[in-house]
Design goal:
The structure is a homodimer of 189-residue chains. Chain A has 189 residues and is of the alpha/beta class. Helix content of chain A is 29%, strand content 37%. Chain A is built from five helices and eleven strands. In chain A, the strands form two sheets. Chain A has an eight-stranded mixed sheet, with helices on both faces. A two-stranded antiparallel sheet of chain A has the order 1-2. The interface between A and B is medium-sized, with 29 and 29 residues. β5 (76-82) of chain A pairs antiparallel with β3 of chain B.
């Protein structure tokens, strides 16, 4: 998606360690004109997928999932994060490692919000090592639902999370894939 | 807003202590068809406000703020929560008390995302005692911005946060106001 690549080039801030900050349009501050187009593009890509539910993770996945959900007329469920494991039989659980923040989160989805038979589109803002998407896929499959695919706004191709998912047979669509990043230059796939 | 009242009556779950659970359509699970109408209604209410920015708080405010932002063509900024105070001069800070969770959060907004001269519409899912909205208003006013009003999906009128803000001169629009709640009955204003 040309617009996402242009936004990354014009507003993204490259930090040491292969980190790119997109807080001015995709994260803390959200450009809703761009977001509407992101939702429309995910809807276009997955229009024939039969998806019945969009699954994401708080907080930064919510805006993109909601934009896609509005464009597709589908409900959105977001997994909650907590530092400690919950003793709760009413939730599906996964452990998600954040490489950018260097911490682990227990993520949960209440069992009543995802059903066997659901066709789940998993959505997040960033796809790097893939830990969040892997956790959400595990939760969907625990519920007996089928994962019809994944969508991310930005994928860092060099961190392999997306290609590992593709190798496992999942459909993964990222609106911009960064294959190389130096302090001064970004190369898209 | 009739739709919000109907949703509360049909899907809300009343818990002890004046708590109403709306996780099936407004929180963990989001009904995006309803959300689109929520965004349109907030846009209608504030169409002449001159708002330039929507300010909310993670996580559960994001969906509503994004729906309103898309309907109004405005950017959304969400305040981040953390358990501990950050020593960071680049952020505006407030302390927010959650009565439903019984804990305090430090909330922050990066200074670059809100400007003196902005006209800020403050949005959240719930308005109860008003601590979150008060914190967001304080942050906006610290930045030298003007608060043109507040919008909440659901206000619990008996917890006074909304009326206290109105008494201080703020415009507060809630899509449903619960004035009384027993274990079996909900009375709207």
């Amino acid at each position: 998606m040309k617009l996402m690549e242009e936004k990354i080039l014009s507003e993204g801030v490259i930090l040491p360690g292969g980190v790119i900050k997109v807080g001015s349009f995709l994260n803390e501050r959200i450009d809703t004109l761009m977001l509407k187009e992101v939702g429309a593009e995910i809807a276009r890509l997955y229009k024939d997928s039969g998806a019945t539910l969009i699954l994401t993770i708080e907080s930064s996945g919510i805006a993109i999932a909601v934009a896609a959900g509005m464009a597709m007329g589908l409900p959105v469920v977001f997994a909650k994060k907590s530092k400690t494991a919950k003793k709760d039989d009413d939730v599906y659980k996964a452990l998600v490692h954040s490489f950018s923040h260097g911490k682990e989160n227990h993520v949960t989805v209440r069992k009543e919000y995802i059903q066997a038979g659901d066709k789940v589109l998993v959505v997040d803002d960033f796809l790097t090592h893939g830990s969040a998407l892997n956790g959400l896929i595990a939760i969907a499959e625990d519920a007996g639902a089928e994962v019809v695919g994944c969508a991310a706004a930005i994928e860092k191709g060099f961190q392999m999370g997306g290609d590992n998912l593709r190798a496992r047979g999942y459909r993964v669509e990222s609106l911009a894939i960064i294959d190389e990043m130096t302090e001064t230059e970004i190369t898209f796939r």
